[in-house]
Amino acid sequence: MRVVIAEDSTLLREGLVRLLALDGIETVAAVDTAPALIDAVDTLAPDLAVIDVRMPPTFSDEGIRAALEIRARWPEVAVLILSQYVEERYAAELLSGSTRSVGYLLKDRVADVEDFLGAVRRVADGGTALDPEVVAQLLVRRVGSPVDRLTPREHEVLSLMAEGLSNAGIAAALVVSESAVAKHVNAIFAKLPLSETPAPHRRVLAVLEFLAARKDPS
Fold first, then answer.
1. Torsion region of 58: left, alpha or beta (phi above 0 gives left; psi -120 to 50 gives alpha)
2. Mean pLDDT (whole number) for 17-25
3. What per-residue confidence (pLDDT) applies to 36?
4. What's residue 142's pLDDT?
5. Which fold has domain 2-131?
């Protein structure tokens, strides 16, 4: 796996390079500005870009806007946002386009190195990795959404799906059987309704509906 890192903090940037190297992941560029990130992706064609949200010169939203540009210009490049902040406007846009090869983790909530490295590999492999706090900050409920039809447990299962968990992962998180999770997932598909769509695609559409229901309509 070949990775580009965009992080303005020298210590964190170098720390990420070394951490990834210990897991056999090659960092082909480590930069500190959004323009340098775009140049690196264009020139080096990495598998994954790990990106901070707030970068020079304004330290506002340069990183996540660069992530959106990468998704538009190089959709084959996976994007993992690693930040202290949830930039809601752009996060909703990033996550509503597709849940494939995208992640958004909060620095202060990354408590386990193995979990982080697992998220890196999952996103690079086409999966999703969303911090629950990111999902929570997008929870601006839209009246009349099909998501409103879900029971509290089904809503909880869908939230965990949005974080990128498999049925087995959801079962472990909720301390229930995989068969119970499968029943909830099937109920979610039926209520949204997504029951006639192929199973892998239904899962993606369900997560997109979940995220869309939580975008601020204003």
1. alpha
2. 96
3. 96
4. 44
5. Rossmann fold (3.40.50)
Structure tokens at 100: 């494939």
Higher pLDDT, 112 or 33: 33
Rounded CA separation 106/86 (Å): 8
**Residue ranges per domain, the chain?**
2-131, 146-212
Contacts of 88 (CB under 8 A, 6+ apart): 137, 138, 216
Q: Of the segments 60-74, 119-133, 199-213, which one has the largest average pLDDT value?
A: 60-74
φ and ψ of 46, to 5 deg: -75, 170
- Report strand pairing: 78-83 vs 2-6: unpaired
CB 150 within 8 A of CB 180: no
Is the Cβ–Cβ distance between 35 and 67 less than 8 Å?
no
Phi-psi region of 180 (alpha: psi -120 to 50; beta: other; left: phi over 0): alpha
Predicted structure pTM score? 0.68
Residues in contact with 106: Cβ distance below 8 Å, sequence separation at least 6, in sequence order = 83, 84, 85, 86, 131, 133, 134
Confidence check: pLDDT of 141 > 60? no
- Among 51-55, 127-131, 149-153, 188-192, the range with the most confident prediction by mean pLDDT is 51-55
What architecture (CATH level 2) is domain 146-212? Orthogonal Bundle (1.10)
Give the separation between CA 155 and CA 134, rounded to whole angstroms: 16
d(CA 125, CA 121): 6
